[in-house]
Amino acid sequence: ARSTRQWQEADSAHFMHPFTDHAGLARKGARIITRAENIYLWDSEGHKILDAMSGLWCVNVGYGQQALIDAAARQMKELPFYNAFFQTSTPPAIQLAELLAEVTPPQFSKVFFTSSGSEGNDTVVRMVRHYWASLGQPERQVIIGRKNGYHGSTMAGASLGGMSGMHAQGGLPIPGIVHIEQPHWFELGRGQSREDFGLTAARWLEAKILEIGPEKVAAFIGEPVQGAGGVIVPPSTYWPEIQRICDRYGILLVSDEVICGFGRTGQWFGCETMGTKPDLMTFAKGVTSGYIPLGGVMVSDKVAKVLIEQGGEFNHGFTYSGHPTACAVAVANIRLIQQLNLVNHVRQNIGPQLAAGFASLEDHPLVGETQTCGMMGALQLVKDKASGQPFDPALEVGMLCRAHCFGNGLIMRAVGDRMIVAPPLVMSRDQVDEMMALIRHCLDLSLSELKT
Ligand code: PLP
User: Is residue 79 located within the same domain as residue 47?
Assistant: First the structure.
């Protein structure tokens, strides 16, 4: 076996990591993660780490689930791969399509498979434009997304997203994609009640539609809860008003469920928690609990009917659309979520416990705001609690806190000075307590470091 140092040297020499400052990484060396079980990871030095991010928002059923491992092994032996291009299909892809129709909201009975969330959102861009063209309205091209939203890293995915750092590289956004502000009360709405601000933020969509001309707008896309943007839980008034506006102007509503899907918010899908009825829904991550890559687009009957009856052949697809091994793992994963009753476990048990735990951190001198939704949570770190004044960004307080977490056996993510968690949905109540104690300890360590 190689030593940690040897792994790190080879990593630096050959592996370009996503979203990573490589000069910084080379100085410190990557942390080498070697195995995992349940909600814990172990690194090459033998440290045990509580994974409060479920990998990257995906390992909903936790690590080491034998049913998923067996499903992959069985399918690889029987038929590891076959495509769906030649008017061919495979049992696992058909079973998964059937199961998705069962667990998604009633307007959905069809799915288009991809390998990732980014590919799903790319598919949406082509699909909604093709939908409107099929209805004889090819001028409906514009898709509205949100600043700081994240919809992936492909050209269209990163364009739909509103991350300024991504738009600054590679000539984004692509034409026909525009953005409105996010429903981030703590940053943009503190003069108003949360409910009033929710309506204000939703009406930015209406203003944008009227500015462009409703006859040119194809769709609006959003994450029910903005995840990578910092777990921004919108006020309860926000999504119903967005739905009203989309209905009023006949604009397709796309829910990006890549993070919020498969139980994360305490319902099967985030749109159910937020009270919307999307026309299209993208998913990935939790569909296989991250054990194998898979994503897709749920297509509502309304959209599918037009595409099938008027759209002709949709010239779009991936080698791995409906990959049998990935689909077999997804079927096993969804059945496990059902058997373990994980959606109810989040809604009735650990979700409320996480909410109470985060609320109890509001007494901490560093914490300006806490928000949770199901098993997603955010802590906004501030310099001054009373006024909500932020720290100087140059201090990188979020990264400082993240380093204390890493050093003390906890993975939390920092988005600027917002600390976020999205732990596995299989967590027990004792494990939520264990995580909350670690979080408080790491906040205390961060506070002492900032004072010195
Ligand atoms: N959409 C959302 C909401 C996401 O959080 C992500 C990834 O984090 C994506 C899309 C992109 O998915 P992928 O990384 O599988 O391409």
Answer: no
Are both 194 and 282 inside the same structural domain? yes
Per-residue pLDDT band at 169 (split at 50, 70, 90): very high
| CB distance 118 to ligand 1 below 6 Å | yes
Rg (alpha carbons) of the chain, rounded to whole number: 22
- Measured between alpha carbons, how far is 291 from 436 in angstroms, rounded to an integer? 26
pTM over 0.90: yes
Most ligand 1 atoms within 8 A of CB, residue of 53, 148, 258 to mutate: 258
Handedness of CA 152, 158, 160, 166 (dihedral sign): positive
Mutation to probe ligand 1, out of 285, 288, 291 (largest number of atoms < 8 A from CB): 285
One domain for residues 217 and 298: yes
Asked if 172 contacts 155 with a C-beta cutoff of 8 angstroms, the reply is yes
**Same domain for 393 and 271?**
no
208 lines ligand 1 (CB under 6 A): no
Domains in the chain: how many in total? 2
| Residue numbers of the domain that contains 433 | 31-61+341-451
ipTM score above 0.85: yes
CA distance 414 to 416: 6
Q: Which of 150, 257, 291 to mutate to test the pocket of ligand 1 (most atoms within 8 A of CB)?
A: 150
Ligand 1 atom with least separation from CA of 257 = 3
227 and 108, same domain (yes or no):
yes
Q: Does residue 369 share a domain with residue 325?
A: no
Q: Which two tokens stand for residue 50?
A: 């509580």
